[in-house]
Write a structure and sequence with these properties.
It is built from five helices and five strands. The chain is α/β, with parallel strands linked by helices. The protein has a five-stranded mixed sheet. This is Restriction endonuclease type IV Mrr domain-containing protein.
Length: 198
């Protein structure tokens, strides 16, 4: 083997300095570029932050409210009706049973037709044998408006269709008294008063 063949390949030891200026092979030990540091997109975790729609819903349900407890009352004891005076007394006893206090029955019936009064209450009793008409219902309602009081009507013979329709419009409770002195609700306003009390 000659002096020039010492097992070196061309361009290695015998090459002049700086003759091979090729840089390192890309990917072979080179530092990763910025693209290599990007993390793939991942779906949000189940326990992650809530979205705006979840935090601020368009409809917020009202909290549940407890039903109004029924008033604690004893058994109503009716008064047998024999006279017109008995009918007024029976209505007065029923109103006291509902919770109205200081129910007053005047000695003589006033011109207004109001038979019973109490704080926040005016009531009329029709003891006639004919159904109560529209005019009587409206007059009692106006009396209640003038004193900011609840108006309640009692009748022995019931009410005309016009009177019942008008009472339903203005929310005036109508009751029918039987001869045992027990009032029976005629409309929704009377049902609400009988179940909820004063």
């Amino acid at each position: 083997m000659g002096p020039g063949s010492l097992g070196t390949s061309p361009g290695s030891a015998g090459a002049s300095p700086g003759s091979d200026r090729r840089g390192p092979v890309p990917g072979a030990g080179s530092a990763p570029g910025p693209a290599r540091h990007r993390r793939p997109a991942t779906p949000p975790r189940a326990g992650g932050p809530r979205t705006f729609a979840e935090r601020y819903p368009s409809h917020i349900p009202l909290p549940p409210t407890a039903p109004r407890p029924a008033p604690v009352r004893g058994t109503f004891r009716p008064l047998t009706i024999r006279t017109a005076r008995d009918a007024v007394a029976a209505a007065a006893g029923y109103l006291r049973w509902l919770g109205f206090r200081d129910v007053v029955q005047p000695e003589e019936r006033p011109a207004s037709g109001v038979d019973l009064r109490a704080p926040g209450l005016v009531a009329q009793v029709d003891p006639s044998t004919r159904p109560t008409g529209l005019r009587a219902v409206e007059c009692l309602w106006l009396n209640g408006l003038s004193t900011s009081a609840v108006s309640v009507f009692f009748s022995l013979a019931g009410y005309t269709p016009e009177a019942r329709s008008r009472a339903a419009e203005i929310g005036l409770p109508l009751f029918v008294l039987d001869l045992t002195g027990t009032p029976q609700p005629v409309n929704t306003a009377a049902d609400d008063l009988a179940s909820g009390g004063a």
